[in-house]
Amino acid sequence: MGLRYFFISGTSRGLGRAMADVLLAQADVRVWGFSRGAGPSHPNYTHHTIDLSDSTAVNQLIFPDLTDASQLVLINNAGAISPVARAGLQDAAAIEKLIFLNLTAPLILTNAFFKKYEKQNTSKLIVHISSGAGRRGIDAWNVYCATKAGLDNHARAVTEELLATQKNDTHIFSIAPGIVDTAMQTEIRTVADDEFSLAEQFKNYHETNQLLSPDLVAKQFLTIFNHPEKTPGPVFSINDIPSS
Length: 244
Hints:
Blueprint: E1 3-9, H1 14-24, E2 29-35, E3 45-49, H2 55-60, E4 69-76, H3 92-117, E5 123-129, H4 142-164, E6 170-176, H5 183-188, H6 199-207, H7 214-226, E7 235-237
Parallel strand pairs: 1-2, 1-4, 2-3, 4-5, 5-6, 6-7
Helix pairs in contact: 1-7, 3-4
């Protein structure tokens, strides 16, 4: 049996950090993290410091040669929500930066992952961390909604490509993790009521303990990593997967 390699963007905090911690508890797993801040301190963790909103840095990223892999997994987790503002009130540079981080970078990394490991005879999985916001419109989140919808449709399109080329050892999913207690939620709660009509609703999620723990959500993803063939893919919510 070979080792299972997981490449995770955004491992310095939030869901990405929780996923790394949960995965590293398994002896056959090696994790490579990509983020600006430091990741977990663990002998089986390799960190690559990178600003995933920097196009030059993302385009120069190279996946390693791995000849002992039994599974290769790319998790496009890094993302942001700002600008939280209605159309006509946004800074053009902020729009461009968010689109690159949330959508362009994951597509570039996915393309590089395929190029590197396409001919490797092992199980391969790409996971986009999406959002319910990609499947409906939300006031003042128009750019964020657009980027997450892009991830969803990218997963659908690549799934069709895998079917057309009969690459049965590869899967791609775009998964909404639910409302997770991360720094993004903290940022949302700072937006004024007159700038975001759902501001009170999101504050209430926090005040009434409705936010999901990153550790709990990360553990739910283990079922997907272990059995990608049993998911309802390519686009679904983590709540669609029974707890293991």
